[in-house]
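RETRY 2/3 - previous attempt timed out on the joint model. Re-submitting the same 326-residue input unchanged.
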Amino acid sequence: MAGTIDVVFWIMSAAAIIGALLVVTVKDVFRAALALAGSFLAVAGLFFLLQAEFVAVAQILVYVGAISIILAFAILLTRDMGQGNLTQNNRFLVIGGGLMAALFVVVAGYVAYDANWSDRDSVLTDLDVTAALTGQYEESTNSDGDTILIEYTGVDETKAMDGVFADSTGWLGELLVRDYVLALQALGVLLLAAIIGSIALVREPEQEA
Amino acid sequence: MNLENVLLVSAILFAIGLYGALTRRNAIILLMSIELMFNAVNIAAVGFSRYTVPSALAGSPVEVTADTVQTALSGHVFAIFIIAAAAAEVALGLALVIAIYKQRETADVSELDTLRG
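RETRY 2/3 succeeded.
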């Protein structure tokens, strides 16, 4: 089963990386936007594999559904520059950018594979979706009458972790309206400010009466 | 599929976004490259969230409390807030691009050098 997951993981990763490469190399801006949507979709697949279902759905709704469409609109509104007259023409810039990107991959990859991630022994090395989906847990109340305590009986920590992720959406909902409620409200204000700002920037100036 | 591979994919995607942001001159493609980098960061956050076990879960018998879950899922929360912030950022950025395009008839960032001394 783990082999299948691996195959799907690498297919999704390859799709995301190829899409991203198309975004930064294709001349036509509209095709770049389409490649970007494909890359976003593949990343959503990666989120599903990582058992982050809510993040995956949010990714599809916000990135694939909204941001790609906004990008398409912006490209259509600035149409005549979409015909490939704005390619990179500075060879040194391309070489420098490529070197920077390669250096980043080497350094970050080295860190990823070399670092001793906290408590290395308990880092989960395999993804057992079946165990996660059937994670055995039961809801109960603690002495304070707190209903969100979930007690695992005789389950090893891997299974417990899987249990957390089996209902990650539910837990996430509780977290967002309890521990992170202030940040959530601030986020709403930020989005409102951004929308008002965008409208103020692009609307036609009113005619003087 | 393990933490290292997830981080590697994340690093590659981030580097591609970095390359695009450094080399492309079209403002809209610049925004797309920045979105790619946001995505890479999200992958790293969710990957860490999935594959590192909070110390509270390392004992046995295991007791999962709300605090443990908060620790375990903080990567997801980060990803969600980053997605929302990126949406706000791209809306504002594209509004700027369109406003500049209406005024200057260009979206080439190398021509926007009004502030050059």
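Helices of chain B lie at 3-23, 27-51, 66-104. Closing ticket.
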